[in-house]
Amino acid sequence: MSEQTGLVFSYSSNIINDLPTVSINIKHKTVREALALLLPGNISYKAKNNYIILKERSIEKNPKKAELNGYVYDKATDKKVANVTIYDKKSLQSVTTDDYGYYSMSIPIKNQSIIINKENYKDTCIILSELQTNSMTFINLSPVDSTKKDSVVWKEKLKELGNYTNKMVREFKSYVNTRNVTDTLSRNFQVSLLPYIGTNHKLSGNVYNNYSFNIFGGYARGVRVLEIGGFFNIDKEDVHGVQLAGFFNLVGDTVKGIQLAGFFNITGKSMNGFQAAGFTNINLGELNGINAAGFVNANLGKVKGVQLAGYVNYAKQVEGIQGAGFVNFALQEVKGAQLTGFVNHTKVLEGIQIAGFVNHAKYVKKGLQIALVNISDSCKGLPIGVFSFVRTGVHQLEISGDEIFKANIGFRTGVSKFYNIFNVGIDKRSDEPLWSFGYGLGTSFKIKNKLRSDITLTANHVSKGAFKEAESELYKLYWGVEYKFKKKFSIAAGPVLNLYISDTHSIDYESTYSHIAPYSFYDNTSNDGFNFKAWLGAKVALRFF
Q1: CB 355: neighbour CB atoms within 10 A?
Q2: What is the mean pLDDT of residues 59-86?
Q3: Which domains are delineated in the chain?
């Protein structure tokens, strides 16, 4: 062996004098394997530079721990396998084979077996009492066919990330354990300083804990009752109960219970219960309960419950309430309410949208939209706002005349039940025309066939010549009928109740504003100089579209 390897063996003659002569044929084996086959259990060795130092080892009569070491082979190819997890289920002691497939570990002697796991290989269990007396144990693993489980896309991703991933795996052995070990391990209680530095050792990512306390942060397979982290908690699968973290919680699967974090919470599937974070909550699945965040809530699945955010809420579907300071966004449907200071959006609405600025829903099946601006493709509900646009609703241009203004142009937009009116009017009574502009609301209902009736209430500011801020307001209550001759053309007419309020101190009051009413059944001037006139008039209009 010295001739082939160049190694120098150093030993005391008295430890080998009584050893029997051994003749053995060894091919394609490492020095470590050869020594394991040659040396008895009472002789150990230590390598230093080019020297192999042999020492006599005292054998305990009643040892508390068993020392295990050896190699793991692929049974099909007879090649050594790296990154294999070998562990004791009772003590959670574990090791991972190195790049040469070698392992070394010590476990309590009272334990009966060790388990060997490797991704894409069959799980193996070794009974300690069946091991041979030599100091090295060779383990053969049978591979399984994993090609059926992998999609072409997944293979390509692995190929692209191959170099980086292989380096990471070599450096982060504990991560390998989470991939290799499929068995569910359980502990009632665990404490850790950081992931894999705690009472569950390097198998912490494979253990479900009832109670988990992470001084700075921790990693577990899951939690069943309570988890507290000074900075963070990470769980590969489910959390049931209460999870508290100073900075963030990250759960790979489902949370059932309460999840609180100073900055953010992320769950890989559904959240069932109450979730609150200082900045953001992100759920890749459904929410059943309450989402509360200082900035953003994002649910890629359905929300059944309440979303509350200081800035933005996002969900695929909502059955409940979205409340945000700035934006609510539901990708598909809202059955309930969206309440925000700025913008609400959804595809289908069955409920109510209230926004400080804009509501948008492609289809309003039923319910209300309340905002300055309401926009939809179709609306079977009621849009209430300063401006409502419904693509399949009312878009009507009106040209009309009445007893004051011979020419008026108005635009109606919204739905028949409730629409907005914008209008301007002009009448040339002298060298300076009298004109008005205003806003109103209206409703229309069908009488029969082509005949409809509509009621409108408008408010107009009246000025002579240039715009004047003096009080000169004309309020009109109209109730008339409309006959539709063609799809986009109709004629309307009806009585109008007028109320005109003007400032008697205005420079144009005596010459113009006092004569606007053709007659009045009510005329009164208040002590502060405002004149009120009321009369009954009429309007005739042509309507298009």
Answers
A1: 26
A2: 82
A3: 1-59 (3.55.50), 61-181 (2.60.40.1120), 182-340 (no CATH), 394-544 (2.40.160.20)
